[in-house]
Each structure stands twice: as C-alpha cells, then as structure tokens.
DNA sequence: GAGTTTGAAACT
DNA sequence: CAGTTTCAAACTC
C-alpha cells in the first residue's frame, strides 16, 4: 500500500512519513498533544465544492456543544464529533472501519459550501478524536467517542498512533490519526476491505444507492446525513459522481494540529462503470481502496497540519495556503466526467507543513506513505506526474496545477490567506479505463507520485527543499514522475492528466511556470505557480494559488534564491511590488523580460503583447523549455554563494561589462550590490573592494541615502508639528491667551455673514446692478464682515488678557 | 518623455 | 565558442 519509495521516505519528515497508522489497523489511542505551534488564527475558510448532487453533508463536530451526528439514512452515514461526549458515528452498509483519530485540538472553523448544490463542509474545532469506538452493527453505525486525553496520550506513545480498525461487514472506515501534530485524520470507507487482517465482507448487496454525503465537519449544528453506498452495488445502479470534500481544520496555537477532512465521494452518474475509485488524500496520506471489481468509495478525514482546507467536489478545487508555519497548499482536482465509466479522484496531496512534506500517493508499491489503493484504480491509473520542487529551505511554495483544458478558475477570498483554485477538467467521455495509460507497475515506481484513476488525477506534492534534493530529477516513465529540484522555492505540482507533451525539466522550472497541455493534447496541463504570485492571478480565470506570507527564509541559500539582482532579502522582494516590465517585442517570454526571468507572471506591467500569463500557458511553457534547453540554469538565481566556504554572494556567471566600469546598474554585479569576482569578464572593472571609484560612489550613495532619510525625517517632523499645531489651536482657548481670530468664526457668525452677503446680493439685484458690480458689492460686504470678525476677535483677546491680568 | 547607452540574452 | 544581433533596462538630456 505504500507508495513512497523508501529512499524518499527516509528523506521525508517524520510527520509526513508516519505511515504506520494506515497499515497498523489496530486500534490505537490518539496521540497526545500536538507540537504544532501553528495558530488557529484563521478561523474560517470558505471552501468551495462543486457538487452537482444534492447537498451532502458530512459533519464532524468538535465544538463544545454536544453534537451527535447520526447519519442514518438509508445506506450509510458518517458522523464524527469530537466533543468529549460526542461520538463519531459511521454507518455504512458494509463498512470496514479503520479509525485513526489524531489527537488534534483545533478551534478553527472551516466551512466549505457549495453554493451550487448546497453542499457544505464545515470543520470547526475538532478536538481530540479518539477512541473508543462504538459500533453498532445493527444499524451500521460506529460511534467514536472522544477519549480522555490521558488515554490518548498513553496510547499515542511517542509519535504515531496506531489506527483503530473497526470492521463492519466488509466496509471500512479509516480514520487515521497521525500521532504527530499536523497529521491528518483519515476516514476511509472503502466498500470492500482488502487489507489483510481485516475482515472483508462484501457490502450489503441490498444496499441502496451508494452515496456519500459527508460535507460538514465541525461544529455546525445542522448536520446532514452522510450516505455512503456500499461498494458492491455500484456497477450499474445509480448515477454516480465523484465528490470530494475536504475539510481542513485549523489548529489553535496550543492545540494539536488542525484536522483536515477530505471526503471523497464517487458517484457514477451513469453507472457505466462498476469501478469507481476515489483516492482521498489527506494530509499527505492517500487512502485508496483496492477492490478491483468493486466500486470504491473512500471518505477521508484528515487533519492537516495547517489551516489548509481542500474542498474537492467534482470539478472544483480549493486551495488554501496556510499560515506559517504550515505553509501548505492544497490542491484538489476532480474532474468527473459525466459518462466516464470510471470516475476516480486521486487526491494525492503532499503537504508541506512548514518544512514538512506530506505525500499522498496512490499506488501499490510499498512506500512510506501508506495508502489504500484500489486495484481498479490501478487499472485505470493514468500517468501522473507529480513534481515536487523544493527549494532549499525555500520560503515559498510553488504549485503546479494541472490545468484541465484551461478550465481553472481562481477563487480568492479577500482578506484571507486561503486561495482556492477551481480546476474544471474538461469532460472526457473516454475516461474509461485506459489501458494505454501508465501501467500500474509504472506507478509503482516507489516514487512520490500520485496516480488517480479516471479523468481526474491530482498530485500535490510539496517538498521542502531542504528535505529532499535529488529524489528523482531524472525524467521518469510517463506514468509517474517525481521531480525534485533544489529550487529555492517549493512548488506544488498537480498533474491531472497524462503528461503534457512538453515536459520541461522541472528541476529548473521557474516559479510561476505553467505547464499547459499541449495544443490538442490532453485535457490537463501543469501550472507551476509560486505561491507569492497568487495575487498576480487574481485577474486570471485559470489558477489561483495562495501562499502564506510568513514563510521565513531559513537558509542563506534560500534567501539568496529569492534575492534578485538587487540583493534584497526574500521578504523585501516579496513585499515590494515588482517592477513592471516594458517589453515590447519579446512577448515577455524571453529572459529579457525580468518578470519572466524571475519566474513571475506579468502583472500590472507595461508590456505589449504579453504572453507571460496563464492565458498563454502553452507558449509560456514552450518558452520556458526553450530557455532551459539553452541554459538549464536559466531560472536559477544569478546571485548565489560563491565557492564553497565563501560567504559572500557573487554572480553566478559574472558580468561582461565593457564600458560601464561595472559601476552602473548595467552591471549585474553592481546592481546586486556585490563586487565583481574572478569569474567576471568585465573590462575596466572598478567594482572591486579597493576601487576608489567604487568607494566614492558608495560614499555618494550613502550620502544620498542619508539625505533622503533626513528629508523624510524632516518631512515627518514637520507634518507632525503641523498636526500638533492644528490640534492645539483648533480648540477654543478659554484660559489665558484667548482665541485665535478664526476661532471666532462660529456658526452664528457664519450665518450672520451669509445673511449679510445675501442681503447685499438682493440689494444689488433690486438696484439692477450689473453682475460684476453685484459681485463687487458682495465681496465688499464680505470684507466688511471679515473686518468686523477680526476686530471682535482682537477686542475679545484684549479683554481676555486684561481680565486675566 | 524621447533618445542614448549598456550589457545580457538570443541568435548565427 | 565567438561574433553579431536583439532586446529591455538604465541612463541622459
């Protein structure tokens, strides 16, 4: 069941690689406290799910109020409450339930709502979900009660907690709690249990239409029943559609990691294919059901480290960047095709929690990442390329998002760090099992990848750069590829379909790279979108990815990576608005364009005929490929550390200046505020340590800077003085010094003055004075009024002074 | 703001 | 790899 290769596993953080939960089905107490500092600052994150179906709701409630979710619709229901007395009850026809609750205390409330269909997902304050379970075979319900923390901690022991397995008639519900904070709780409801040691009882043959209606997690009082159909009946019965709802729960700073729930529902609308596979991926874990012949349904409830919320329903994807430290971008892609025989959603999610990676993969290969993969899925697995580009300690995540037919919509919530990407995969009727697709064996490359069956595939690996460096830099088989680069920024790549024709070397992909499907090719492309550029995409209908702003630059390399030529720090560069380009002929697809060279999309630029945007994914991809072909390091920072042992930054290639003396910004070294080095080929260089010209220039620059600072300070001081003066003079001075003249212009005075002016105007009108004369008369009267006011003011002041004296 | 200078990128 | 051209930023007026 493991999909992650051992070597990769070894590289992954413990939190991510804690996969024992899945395999170890035995019950275990939820782990203890979460070490996760992440705050629950974000209280709610709206999620958007596309649910063509009627509203379906899965509710997990953890709030103080006692919520008992009992989903006892016809078939099955899932209800999880984390309240102390609140049970998690799961009822399905033939469920095999594995519950691995993580001890997570989260107060964050996440709500996902599908306005279209009314599907809503709500997660709130899910607190320690823990055993014991209460299983009532009679009504197919499993009640998971919150266990006292002490129990949980004991059972949890160090980090991981063994999963709790509840067997119930062939279906299983996996609630996986990862011992460490930040790890997901996965609830999986495969129709048939394939795991050893788990009694596999076929679902109730009489089970009604298999449906999962789980949408709400958290403290929403109104809980809707979750209906989970048995996997057995899927074949021709009800129209099924794949629905995936992922709910992320935020974790308060002190509490355990937030819980993210992913609920995936596969609904075959046409019932064309008996095989329906849903591979929910939660917090880096993918639980897949493997039942070759049986339709699969998986409900995954995961608790991500961060506040990420994923809502995947049908065709929509919600991506929510997290607050640091859990800088996680979650991307979900679902593209159920109406008549696709197999509708599967693979939601492999690699979530980097801070520096952590959560990798969820769907494959049968034994990898540290544990997942339940349906065999049927394997049959239908299409090649999925998940590229994890992790910059060394990069402070940002980049996301490569499969762009299904350019149907990516950005959903952004103002004021929220959560960014959502809606990926609408073009409907392909041929999503049926594709033998030509990557074989399962290829998928089993034991490399971090995510393979999903059906038309939709998702892979969201986020690899911390420092954690993984060269995992699979080499292009892999078409089926699955994992590319890990030492890019300074982390990227999130979500392949949704077979690899596009253009497969540039991801190792050097620039941030913001969009890997688009080849023209006329597959319906899915790749978009590499740096998180910090999400804002650039607000106007873009395609992709939205958000990033957390608080990514700290952990390493010098990282800082340098984000340090453009100007030598600014990462925070500086990210916070400072990028200078707009003015390209006219390059279409912003050549390195002439700074935006393109920096891996950014043009935004608010002055360029003409710009192709450096998501609207021109293909062209941009080609351009990137061209640049990489020409120079594999074209998109790498030019300013990096020097030779080993050298701490000073230096230009990677050196400059070639001839006339500027390397003392103008023409020189890239000078522009980066670094001195030329031995690798420079400049002529007449004056940009060296002892250069008098350089010193003079530096002094001048310093002097200018000081001057600017002084001017700024002077302006500030002057402004402050003016404000202070106004503040002091505005109010009437009643004691001592009297009042300034204008303070005598009270309302009454104004009214009187106006009356005088009006009277003067009337008089002029009555006397038939010309307009000019009338104006003169009025102005004259106004002058008289002013004189009287001033006179009165002076008199009053004198009187006041005399009185005071 | 227009024109010039400059050097990296692109091209041959 | 070197020479040339293209390009956009930097700079000057």
UniProtKB/TrEMBL annotation:
InterPro entries: CRC (IPR005172), Lin-54_fam (IPR028307), Tesmin/TSO1-like_CXC (IPR033467)
Keywords attached to this entry: Nucleus
Subcellular location: Nucleus
Keyword Zinc in record: no
Signal among keywords: no
Spans annotated as Disordered: 26-50
Chief place of localization: nucleus
Domain CRC: 577-690
One GO cellular component term noted in the UniProt record for this chain: nucleus
Positions with biased composition (Polar residues): 28-37
Gene Ontology BP term (one): regulation of DNA-templated transcription
Similarity section: Belongs to the lin-54 family.
The protein's name: Protein lin-54 homolog
Originating species: Betta splendens
Encoding gene per record: lin54
